[in-house]
Amino acid sequence: MITRTPIASLFLAIAMAAGIAHAEPATYAIDPTHTFVTFEAKHFGTSTNRGRFDKKSGTVTIDAAAKTGKVDISIDMSSINSGTEAFNNHLKSKDFFNAEAFPKATFVSDKVIFEGDKVSAVVGTLTLLGKSQTVTLKANNYNCYQNPMLKREVCGGDFDTTITRSEYGMGYGLPFIPDNVHLLIQVEAVKQ
Hints:
- By secondary structure, the chain is mainly β.
- It has helices spanning 6-23, 85-92; strands spanning 26-30, 36-42, 48-53, 56-63, 68-76, 80-81, 104-115, 118-128, 131-147, 152-164, 180-191.
- Helix content is 14%, strand content 53%.
- It is globular.
- Mean pLDDT is 90; it is low at 8-22.
């Protein structure tokens, strides 16, 4: 029979409580002021056109102990910002994002891949123009920190992937305007 002193029992109880608290999933709300979905596409094989979506929302749930997570992000397609109003209007048109008929795009995932304690990739479904494809977002600079102003934990990083736009029904300008589009997702999310 093992006997424990009251102090040893106290330390054991604290360690067990800390382990239980650490093992629980944490939910984070997307911080819209530090989260942007940006795209890059070659223009006739010369310069690179860039744009971003300014309105987005969603949540991320991470269980670091179990090495699991979920992501649910919604993007307002009418919030596209290329820096030029005429180009924004063309991108919102039926030629590209058809924002009137498809006002939002979504990324939903229940597969978060870890390397050690850090998220290295997120595999999920990107739905754009009513069509869904599986994509893998590679994590770069993933980190969590205690935000001194919010007094809460914030996690995030830069994530990227390349999609084939014609798979979503966006064939305008092919083959002169290339089919591949590089997506860059800068995310910060605040623990709830």
